[in-house]
Amino acid sequence: MPDARLHAMIHGVVQGVGFRYFVIRRAQRLNLTGWVRNVGHDRVETVAEGLKDSLYAFLNELRVGPSSASVRKVDVQWQQYTGEFERFDVTYEDW
64-82 pLDDT, tens per residue? Predict the structure, then answer.
């Protein structure tokens, strides 16, 4: 399958529960590149690039999160692959 880009905003109890590090571990396991960051007090945002099958698997894991989280909803946008990332990590920048 062609490479793709996923932009997701995860809502719920997702801060202070290790959610960003959960996202990093899942993304790395699926060979995705991109970033994750906290937004506000109840949201985590992520952009990931890679194979579309891997991105679907990643999205399924985002909808569940770690056991300490409570995901209420995930807003998803599929975008064009850019290849701009070398790895997957936490970011603190505004995109």
Answer: 999 999 999 999 999 999 9
